[in-house]
Amino acid sequence: MKIALVGQPNSGKSTLFNVIAGFKANTSNLPGTTVTFTESRVNIGGRIADVVDLPGTYSLSTGDLAELETLKYLIENDIDVVINVIDASLLSRSLELTLELLDLGLPTVVALNMMDEAERKGIEIDVDKLSEMLGVPVVPVIAVHGKGIKKLFEAVFETARKNTVPRVIRYPAPVEEKIREMEDSISEELARKLKVTRRFLAVKLLEGDEFFLKKVKEEFPDIENFARTSLKELEEKRGIPADQVLHSERHNLAMCIFEKTARIKRKKGPTVEEKIDRVVMHHFWGYPIMALVLLLFFYLIFSIGGPLEEFFLGPLDALRDRLSGSMGSGLLLNLIDGFLQGIEGGLAVVLPYFVPLVFLMSFLEDLGYLPRIAFLLDTFMHKIGLHGKSVIPFIVGYGCNVPSITATRILESPRDRILTALLIPFIPCSAKTTVILALVAFYLGPLWALGLYVTNIFVVAILGRVISGFFPTPSPGLILEIPSYKLPSMKVTFLKTWLHLKTFINFAWPILIVGSIIMGFLQFLKVDLLINAFFAPLTRGILNLPGEVATTLIFGILRKELSLIMLFQALGTSHVSDILTTKQILTFTVFVIYYIPCLSTLAMLWREFGKKIALLSALLNTGVATLLAFLVRIL
Amino acid sequence: MLSLISVPPGITVKIIQMAGGRGVQMRLFQLGLHPGDTIRVLSVGPFGGPLYIENLTTGVRAAIGRGVARRILVQPVR
Questions:
Q1: Which candidate from A59, A281, A412 shows the least CB-CB separation from B23?
Q2: A window 7-26, beta carbon within 8 A of B
Q3: Structural class in CATH, domain A2-91+102-162
Q4: Residue A521 to residue A519: CA distance in whole angstroms
């Protein structure tokens, strides 16, 4: 049996998915988190079902890339039951999507999620009346606490068994008449070819949906003309511009259902949330608060990471020194030393900073503060020829560049997507943050580390300005939903941290260990000297760094932390300051942050944007890195 | 009738009409902003920053760029 979770962004689909499928889908209090499909075979009360978590869509319009994908998924895969997940505190808007879904004619169950949110906002919903008006089961649920899930799936299995096709929800007479006429002119065969019901196609044509109008025009131009003429008539009759009339009608219909089924006990004074936002989103106070939050964010990471690194580094170093003492030299020593180096790298260097960073990032995401940062930074983003939602991929980029490249899918214009994708590799990901904290913060102090982040923002700004010069078309204005604050549940935050930790342990750590062993092997064969010599003009010449650094940079392409761990191995000690001066440490770190993106980012760029963009990004990054590192060296 | 841009924070207005391209209109509809809804400007970003508005009819809160806000025509509500 196939179940699809469909709903507007931030309505709790992924949360519901994780409750039933175990923690697989990433969640955050940020509209547009899920951009790809997550599917999982699930056992619910003894019954096996394939559940898919679709990206959030406000409507089933074909104008938006992500929404077209979701619509195609729904009509091309034979789905047994659609669970329409609704944020109960935004019921009226959510119903607009529900009305479109019902026209699709798939057996549907409505999951009225976040009932606690609705209550907090004083919204009381008569669930039975709503279910009666929509003609489908409506089950109140609080996904994050796992409440109402059992009842929901009882309704789901019941609906699947009866395979009940939802009945038609009628629009007001004049509009319904036009839809009826449109529907009659569409042959069953045409509808089947486009894999939609005749009513859904009729409504889409009357919405002036270009995707379907074009499809119909290919074979039945007369239907297309008929659609355009009836659209004109509707425009005169309802006095609303042609392409808005259907949407406004659906909005009014949703509002009407909302008013009949929900009551709002409007609290008198401003709610707590409004008070917080009055300060946090204030046109002046918003910025110092944002700076404070980010400062606290990094201070916490560093104050947790530093001692942990200290704690793990000591014994492991001692072990390696004792080992090299007893083993003398030889291939075996190099390999074992490489292996220990990899373990030490992961345990003592990456994890102490990685775990707090991911934990705090998840907490910040779930709180709902990130879209507020997007609001505050929009003016600044505007200056670099970008705005709109491209702030969200940047914020995701601070965690890891790979998901942020896919996150560019939420941007409407291809211009924005390419421009944002070219800038993302400049955003320091968690791996680069580890390098910054382990080197700069450790040896030069946290203020220097913060300085690096601030200059990074200016570098991204200037680059954005330069690159957007090549893409003159203005990008669309910012239209971004600001979700309500949610107190992050500790369970979910820990689960999210564990999800990232698991991927690190399963993929990244082995690479670190294998990389260190290979490094040991190269060192044994003295091959690394060849590599170092080859890159000497860059490393020694421009950057005034010791030659051994070259091989570490090569490994850094695999994973950024690798360049750090390889550095310890190349210099033969983890106390870098014995060999490198503070300026050299800074030069090395600046180069590592900006040079060629890591392999997985490049692979993602290739997959999303093609060879040319991936190559351009690699050259752009390396060029800027060399320039900036050189500047650091001479200053 | 005036443009949303000129509405100071705290004032409640009713959306009369949305000028501007189809793309922008569609996205405003998707977000739940329709002619006839009453909205309130909560705060305005500095240096030509976006408007932070709340749709009192649907309870949706959103940040709207200046360019977009300029094309939303509103009328004050007593």
A1: A412
A2: none
A3: alpha beta
A4: 5
Parse chain B into domains and list their residue ranges. 2-76
CA distance A93 to chain B (A): 6
User: Is B65–A387 a contact, with Cβ atoms under 8 angstroms apart?
Assistant: yes
Q: What is the pTM of this model?
A: 0.80
**CATH 3.40.50.300 residue ranges for chain A:** 2-91+102-162
Nearest to B45 among A90, A255, A378 (CB): A378
> Which CATH number among 2.70.70.10, 2.30.30.90, 3.30.420.10, 1.20.120.430 corresponds to the domain B2-76?
2.30.30.90
- CB A484 to CB B61 under 8 A? yes
How close does chain A come to B3, measured CA to CA in Å? Answer: 16
Domain with CATH 1.10.287 in chain A: 173-264
Between CA B38 and CA B15 the distance in angstroms is 6
Q: Which residues of A232-263 are buried (b: 16+ CB within 10 A; e: fewer)?
A: eebeeebebebbbbbbbbbbebbbebbeebbe
Write the pLDDT tens digit of every residue in A162-217.
888 888 888 888 889 888 988 888 888 888 888 888 899 989 888 888 888 888 88
- On whether any CB of chain A is under 8 Å from the CB of B5, the answer is no
Shortest CA gap A483–chain B (Å) = 7
pLDDT (tens digit, 9 = 90+) per residue, A309-368?
878 877 877 887 777 777 666 777 777 877 887 787 778 777 887 788 888 888 888 888
- How far apart, in whole angstroms, are the C-alpha atoms of residue A473 and residue A157? 50
Class of the CATH domain delimited by A173-264: mainly alpha
